[in-house]
Amino acid sequence: MRLMLSFYRSYPLRTLLTLLAMSVAGLAEGIGLSALLPLLNIAIESEAGSSSPLPATTSNGFEQGVREALAWAGITPDLNNLLVLIVAALTLKSLLLLVAQVQVGYSSARLATDLRLELLRAILLSRWSYFLNQPVGKLTNSLATEASRAAEAFQNGATALTFLFQALVYGAVALAVSWRATLVGIIAGAIIIGFSHSLVRITKKAGKKQTSVLLSLMSTMTDTLASVKPLKGMGREHLAGSVLSMETGRLNQALERQVLSSAWLDSMQQILFAVIIAGGMYVALVRNGMPLATVMVLVVVIGQMVALLGKVQKQYQKSTIGESAYWSMRATIAEAAGEEEELPAGAIPSIGTGLSLEHLGFRYGERTVLDDVGLEIPAGSLVTLIGPSGSGKTTIVDLVIGLLRPDSGRVMIGGVPLAETDIRQWRRAIGYVPQETLLLHESIAHNVSLGDPEIPVVDIEQALRAAGAWDFVSALPGGMDASVGERGGKLSGGQRQRVVIARALVRKPQLLILDEATSALDGESAEAVRQTLQQLRGSLTILAITHQELLVDIADRVYRLDNGRAQLQG
User: Fold this and answer.
1) pLDDT, mean of residues 115-137
2) 518: Cα separation from own chain's centroid
3) Which of 176, 283, 497, 541 is deepest in the core (most CB within 10 A)?
4) Rounded to two decimals, what is the model's pTM?
């Protein structure tokens, strides 16, 4: 199975420990089984009243070999010793299998965690243009659903290997007792497994269907939940419900096929295996006249071997259900990794006397967004960008941050081209305030620091004071430790925005960027943010996108963008 090989290449040491435990467990089980035939013969001798062991001539070659091995080890082949040997061997086998199963469980959990982290890293390191084209539902599905299904597929595959090891041990013992009977048992088992393999293929197809439907369902559900308010406000929530019902119906069909094929496989195997064992006993006892003890051992070991091979198939069937999720997630990771953003090292950025945009040009496909745009943003100033939607204001911000690269022209940071600076360091020198106030269901302090342990409490308080948020924060029960609620619902719009500004200020940036930061606020809240920006002007450089006059009035420079050009307002 490709899934297992992929895992073994990634975790060779953990794989080696698991295989070693399963191998030694199989050896211990083989020792216990080897003592079974002599034990049965001793029990038969005791029932017959004989006090001496059976002569070598009455034992088959396998039993004689076991007796010789026991003699070499100094173990008398009596009832007590053989019982102790069987119990000891089976106990050792159980303990070693426990070790193997624990390793498999740990490995399964590790696989899910590593897949999630690998995908997150790949996405976070990808180019901004690539990220914009990814549905949030697709990434959510990969992180939540596909990672768990992939881990479950691995666990089922590893369990199949465990059963295969045990089947090989039973097969080896059966071959030593009677190779003819074992060969018949293997052929019969192979026929049954081959006959029922079509059910495994049905399950595999159902698993692939689940993967594709879950991706579509999670994408639709994520978009729907983000739009609940306007849908309910317009009385159109039933439309979303009908779409989700269609997707969940497709998922239910795939699950039904999976359940049906699994049930059929289990039932067919049990019936056919029972027929094989009963027929084998009849032939061995009636037709071939084999000793009862030998037949009993063969029934146990061949029956177990065939049953374990059936379990291998069932576990493989379960593994195929989630295997497609693993390869889907691998494909997503590879795609994101192939879009990794190139951020070469360069000069340490410093805003110096300010920023300038020289002859900038940028296109989205065939559409020209910016055409020979020039801007000057002096250090310590507050510069606003105004203009109709789609005029390129956000594109300019993305170019300044370095998320996009211009088709022509250049962005200058303190007289140095942005392309020649260390862009990672430059981004760390930027505080960014988006239009949407994205707050976590955590404390105010956590929302400001975003959980960064390197940011001391004193810096959090200083950022809240600079953002004009300290008065209302200090009045809250718990102060900075007070929870903001789901999406900041315990705070007003203006309070949420000032907490977000504090988040942007906490690392003492050189440049503060606000992207329509007051557009969703009422007049009073917007005025509070305006006062905050007025106090910050001079201590750092501020670039703001706005449609509101209150920020235009306090700006040192105002540029209007339209038709791909920028014009300085008087």
Assistant:
1) 81
2) 37
3) 497
4) 0.67
- The answer to whether position 125 is within a domain reads yes
* Three-state SS annotation for 3-48: HHHHHHHHCHHHHHHHHHHHHHHHHHHHHHHHCHHHHHHHHHHHHH
Please give the structure tokens belonging to residue 16: 């080696």
Which pair of tokens denotes residue 92?
């050792």
Residue 224 lies in a domain: yes
Q: Any idea what the CATH number is for the domain that residue 162 is in?
A: 1.20.1560.10
CATH of residue 467's domain is 3.40.50.300
Q: Give 31's pLDDT tier (boundaries 50, 70, 90).
A: low
pLDDT band at 212 (very low <50, low <70, confident <90, very high): low
Q: Which domain holds residue 121?
A: 13-337
Is the same domain home to 287 and 179? yes
Q: Is 408 within a domain?
A: yes
Same domain, 361 and 269: no
Confidence of residue 56 (pLDDT cuts 50, 70, 90): very low
pLDDT digits (tens, 9 = 90+) for 278-331: 666 666 665 566 666 666 666 677 777 777 777 777 778 778 777 888 888 888
> Torsions phi, psi of 232, nearest 5?
-70, -35
User: Is 467:447 a contact under the CB 8 Å cutoff?
Assistant: no
Give the Cα separation of 335 and 318 in Å (integer).
27
**Residue 541: strand pairing partners:** 511
Residue where a domain stops, chosen among 337, 369, 393: 337
Q: Is the same domain home to 242 and 279?
A: yes
Same domain, 332 and 467: no
* Burial of residue 459, with CB atoms counted within 10 A of its CB: 0-12 exposed, 13-18 middle, 19 or more buried: middle
Contact 247, 214 (CB under 8 A): no
Q: What is the DSSP letter of 143?
A: I
Question: Domain for residue 4, yes or no?
Answer: no
70-90 residue pLDDT tens:
677 777 766 677 677 777 777
Give the list of residues 6+ apart from residue 12 with CB closer than 8 angstroms, or none: none
Tallying the residues shown for the chain, one arrives at: 570
**What residue spans of 339-428 are helical by DSSP H?**
393-401, 423-428
